[in-house]
Amino acid sequence: MPVVTYDNTDIPVDDEGFFTEPALWTEPMAEQVAKEAGIGTLTDRHWIIIRFMRDQYAVKGTGPTVRVLGKTSGVSVKELYQLFPKGPAKTAAKIAGIPKPRGCI
Asked: Is 37 marked active-site?
């Protein structure tokens, strides 16, 4: 299994770079993952989605789909694509340090 280093911590990830141990994630790591994903500086709107993703993962064992994000996070689908242009659910899950949501290609 691959390992990456964020915030001076070795993190096991899957072949696509998603955390396999979400409990190791910290907010400073999110900033580093976001930069790698081409997002740059995370705004308050990004953090709404990142925290929502982590909360949903804790409750359901998987991150929400884009459709669910758009209906329940308080951020519209249009804005989700502005915040995370390369795929909101997948990119936000990676930044949030959770496994890739079910149904993401």
From this structure: no
- Count of H helices and E strands in the chain? 5, 2
Whether the model clears a pTM of 0.90, i.e. scores above it, the answer is yes
Domain residue ranges in the chain: 3-96
Residue 52: exposed, middle, or buried by beta-carbon count in 10 A (0-12, 13-18, 19+)?
Answer: buried
* Length of the chain, in residues: 105
Set 42, 92, 95, 104: catalytic member:
104
What CATH number belongs to 3-96?
1.10.10.370
74's CB contacts (< 8 A; 6+ apart) are: 48
pLDDT band at 101 (very low <50, low <70, confident <90, very high): confident
What's the CA gap between 97 and 1, in Å, rounded? 16
Q: What is the pLDDT of residues 54-96, one digit of tens each?
A: 999 999 999 998 999 999 999 999 999 999 999 999 999 999 9
